[in-house]
Amino acid sequence: MKQTFTRPRFKQRRSLGLGAILFSISVFAQAQQTDTLQTSYLKLPASAVTDAYVTIHPDSVPQGLVLFTDTYLDGRVPGLRVTDTDGAPGKGNQLLLRYGTSITNSNRPVVVLDGFVLEEPILWDYISESQKSLFGYTYQSNLNFINPDDLASIRFVKDGALNAAYGPQALNGVLYLDTKKGAKGKGIGVSYSVTAALAQLRKKSDKPLSAAAYRELIETKYPDLTSGLGDASTDWQDVIYRPAFGLNHQLAVSGTLFKHVPYYASVNHANTDGIIETSGYKRTALTASVNPSLLKDHLSLQLSYRKTFQEERLIDRRAILEALRFNPTQPVYQQNEYGNYFTHVDNDGNYLGHLFPNPLSLLEQKHTYEDNEHELMQAKLSYKLHFYPALSLNARYVKYDQDNDVESLTDAELPNPYSPEIRMNLSEIKNSGSQQEAYLKLDKSLTDGQSLLNLSFGLSKLESVTETTVREGLGENRDYTRFERMRWTMQKNKAHKLYAQGAFNFKGRYTLNTAVNQTWSDKYFSDVSLITGGFGAAWDISNEKFFPLIKQLNSLRLFANYHTLSLHYPDNGSTATVDTKYEKSSKYNTGLSWSMLAGRLTGSVNYFRTQTDDLLLFWLFTYGTGNIYRPLNYGALLSSGLETNINYTLKDNNKLYWSVGTTFSTLKNKILFEEELSRFIMTDERRWQVLENGKPMNYFSLYQQLYDSDGHPAMGFVVDQEGIAIKELRYSADPQLLWSVHSQWRHNKINGGLLVSGMAGNHVYNTMDEYTAREPYKHNTSTVFVQNGYKSAPSGSNMYLESASFARLEYIQLGYDLGKVWKERASLSLSAAVQNAFVITKYSGQDPEVNAGNNLSHYPQPRTFSLTAKLTI
User: Fold this and answer.
1) Strand locations in 319-390 (E)
2) SS3 for 304-345, per residue?
3) Which of 499, 547, 549 is nearest to 520 (CA)?
4) DSSP per-residue codes, 427-449
5) In angstroms, how far apart are the furthest CA atoms of the chain?
6) Phi-psi region of 227 (alpha: psi -120 to 50; beta: other; left: phi over 0)
7) Residue 288: exposed, middle, or buried by beta-carbon count in 10 A (0-12, 13-18, 19+)?
8) How far is the C-alpha of 480 from the C-alpha of 581, rounded, in Å?
9) What angle do CA 319, 408, 335 make, to 5 degrees?
10) Which residues contact 295 (CB under 8 A, 6 or more apart)?
11) What is the 3-state secondary structure (H, E, C) of 785-833?
12) What H or E segment, with its residue span, contains residue 246?
């Protein structure tokens, strides 16, 4: 009998008080397309950026149910890997520019929200393997708390010169998020939209044997195991997977208060189920801002407040694996003392712990919730000097709080070979901080009127405190008063930054830009500051007198930039005592951008080269009676590649608009070690991967499978003359090619769009095949086992390595603008979309995009159908 469970509350929680409200409010404001880039410190013309950058306006790219900002970046930025490695609701994408710059440090881009640099995602960024096993593999992106409907524009900038102002992390790119704001003098604008979505499993695994096939296999090949056969016919994938429904409501208001104070306010509520039973995600986001200007626009003030509540129901990922190998002849439920879920027991009714657990019981008898609460307040004051308006004084103050709670409760009835009692795990991470910043900015048009100088110089101070509490307890019932142990840690961090950023454009033809940042932080090594610097140059050939060289060529621009990181030690000789150093990285980009056919055909080509020395690798050392991982510097990582971006407007008139575009990136990298080390073995989720001198990173090191005369795998490997199994290096988990094709079109009131993206050269170790293609001892097996002549390959066999190259239809969308409704007071538009419609690949698993080249218990990405209605007043 199926049981219901009411989620326990371990502590008093603050709520919005919205209760049963099933819709949200969000401010309506038009995203304005400009040819400028607003950094935290300067507003620069596009010509001042010495690299090709990408601008996306979310309102103009409808693509179905979009809960997270990084979805809009997929397939739009050459060289940027937007990897949805987890199909669970609430899991953001992983952003990685090319191969990143480090093996163990964070490779996430810097995220700048309205000028404020978001801190690294503290929550679960460095979660231990033991905590993963307790709470599930949780990852909350630092973009998840941002409602994408609040954004006016998204820009991804790879310019190594300008990005240097943000410190070492900016080597991985800078993502600028500019929110919608009210416009001075505008009346009240209101918009309401609702998106309803239905998600389903895109691909069901065809490898588990059906109940009939399994019963026949046992009766013919393993008659001694017939006692383990039941009378049911259960498809365990159908048991744990389900259609999932989601809603995202949006109501919008903006305008001007007292004729001089533009305002923006928003509330967003999203609620979506996961395609695996019990999983789900909710988010409620509040936003409010005002941006008045006074003294004839010499004094401007920006005040904003943002608060987000997120709740996610996590699952025990073992259920995904067990659904492929649990006995299909057994029923889902059975009258017993284990919650009435079918359980393997002996003749006395005792649980047989060596057999696999019921997949549905893992989902319904374990209750794990992750709650995230974010609060961000920002105030910025800017004053243009009356006697010299080109120079402005700027100050910014930011305060933020993050609160992450993970609660995990296991029912006493769930079979547990270690303890029959209820086990409770609680984890709480609180992160609070503030930033104070002041800088000077100069925007000066020189005397000839054709040249422009932009300069900024400033300093900032950041203080933060992170408290972590982990509690584990036992109890005879749900009275959580007795704890086995409790761990509490607190980490305080202070950081001081000095920075400068500048650009000079001479007569629209020649551009020089530069930036420098020096950071002192408790996160880094004591008495050490990190210095990052960058320099770039561009030549706009189209403004030269001899241009055009080709009649159809409208513009041609060459650019190059360089970004480097170095360390500064004090003069007291302390460098001799520093065993571990910060990694040193440098990046070089050069390329060109162009336009033809009256601007209808545009594109860019960029070559990059990145090198990181003194790689931080975690080495295993003996510590007391156990082992400990310690970071040491060793080796270098080199990467390079070519990136292209082409867009073509086939038609653009009052009746028809049609554009197509493509991105294409080739990537390569290699590891360099000193002579005394040739190989470093990776651990944790990068199973069977190594760092090999002269080879690409994350290379698979696997045993050569031995085959019998019939071509079936034997229980053994190819050995050398000394009888030692031979390992070989074969392929990498990382791609060598990224590509995408996108298109947008409009005909009168009908519009549409699509995006196809893909990777090539990436490989996956099929752990799911390794774990399921086994002899069927009271559990299911797979068609792989049957096709291999009823034999299975040992762990670490190269037989399990598969190419995971793919092409995915990310979305296809069709919309219709009904025009004016409600007595001409409002406009109504409708759209329908399909996301993750299909995947073309030779990979035999459910989805080729998996984390770290390992598909163990991977939550599949769903196919999602959605309908959206938007009403604008």
Assistant:
1) 366-384
2) EEEEEEEEEEECCCHHHHHHHHCCCCCCCECCCCCCCECCCE
3) 499
4) EEEEEEEEEEEEEEEEEEE-TTS
5) 96
6) alpha
7) middle
8) 45
9) 55
10) 386
11) HHHCCCCCCCCCEHHHEEECCEEEEEEEEEEEEEEEECCCCEEEEEEEE
12) strand 244-257
With contact defined as beta carbons under 8 Å apart, do 520 and 146 qualify?
Answer: no
Instruction: Please compute, for residue 596, the number of CA atoms within 13 A of its CA located in the half-sphere on the CB side.
Output: 12
Decide the pairing of beta strands 452-475 and 80-83: unpaired
Torsion of CA 844, 849, 852, 858, to 10 degrees: -70
Rounded Cα distance, 433 and 494, in Å? 10
Helices and strands of the chain, counted as H and E runs? 8, 43
Nearest CA among 46, 69, 76, 73 for reference residue 162: 46
Alpha-carbon Rg of the chain, whole angstroms?
29
Residue with tokens 């005792």: 350
Structure token pair of residue 789: 């002549």
Q: Taking Cα atoms as reference points, which of 816, 775, 815 lies closest to residue 794?
A: 775
Contact at 8 Å (CB) between 852 and 686? Answer: yes
- Burial label for 685, CB within 10 Å (0-12, 13-18, 19+), is middle
Burial class (CB in 10 A: 0-12, 13-18, 19+), 76: buried
Other CB atoms closer than 10 Å to residue 559's CB: what's the count?
A: 25
Span between the terminal Cα atoms of the chain, in Å: 51
Please give the backbone phi and psi of residue 550, each rounded to the nearest 5 degrees, phi first: -120, 135
Round to whole Å and give the CA distance between 429 and 491. Answer: 11
Structure tokens at 82: 């937007």
* DSSP SS3 for 11: coil
Q: Residue 322 belongs to what H/E stretch? A: helix 318-325
Nearest to 564 by CA among 583, 578, 579, 537: 583
* Residue with the two structure tokens 């048991």: 239
How distant is the alpha carbon of residue 308 from its chain centre?
Answer: 18
Q: At residue 331, does pLDDT exceed 80?
A: yes
* Host H or E run for residue 162: helix 160-163
Specify the length of the chain in residues: 873
Rounded percentage of the chain residues whose pLDDT exceeds 70 = 86
The average pLDDT across 453-458 equals: 93
State yes or no: pLDDT of 5 exceeds 50: no
- pLDDT tens-digit profile of 668-707? 999 998 766 667 776 555 678 888 888 898 889 899 998 8
| Residues facing residue 537 across a β-bridge | 512, 560
Contacts of 474 (CB under 8 A, 6+ apart): 419, 421, 422, 423, 424, 482, 484
Task: Centre a 10 Å sphere on the Cβ of residue 374 and count the other Cβ atoms it contains.
Answer: 22
Tokens 């069709």 map to which residue?
814
Q: Residue 447 is which amino acid?
A: T
Distance from C-alpha of 64 to C-alpha of 871, rounded to nearest angstrom:
16
Q: Which amino acid is at 209?
A: L
- 498 sits in the region (left: phi over 0; alpha: psi -120 to 50; else beta) called beta
User: Rounded distance, CA 60 to CA 69, Å?
Assistant: 14
Q: What is the pLDDT of residue 24?
A: 30
Distances (CA, A) of 68 to 63, 627, 845: 12, 39, 26
List beta partners, residue 460. 437, 497
Number of Cβ atoms within 10 Å of the Cβ of 390: 14
Q: Is 206 exposed, middle or buried (0-12, 13-18, 19+ CB in 10 A)?
A: exposed
Look at the block and give the residue holding tokens 């939550």: 859
Residues 531-555: pLDDT tens digits? Answer: 899 999 999 988 888 776 677 788 8
- CA-nearest of 406, 405, 410 to 478 is 410
Spatial contact of 866 and 67, defined as CB atoms under 8 Å apart: no
| Sequence-ordered list of residues with C-beta below 8 angstroms from that of 648, at least 6 positions apart, any chain | 600, 601, 602, 659, 660, 661
Q: What is the mean predicted confidence (pLDDT) over 322-337?
A: 94
Long-range contacts made by residues 546-555, C-beta under 8 angstroms, separation at least 24? 552/596, 552/597, 553/594, 553/595, 553/596, 554/595, 554/596, 554/597, 554/598, 554/599, 555/593, 555/594, 555/595
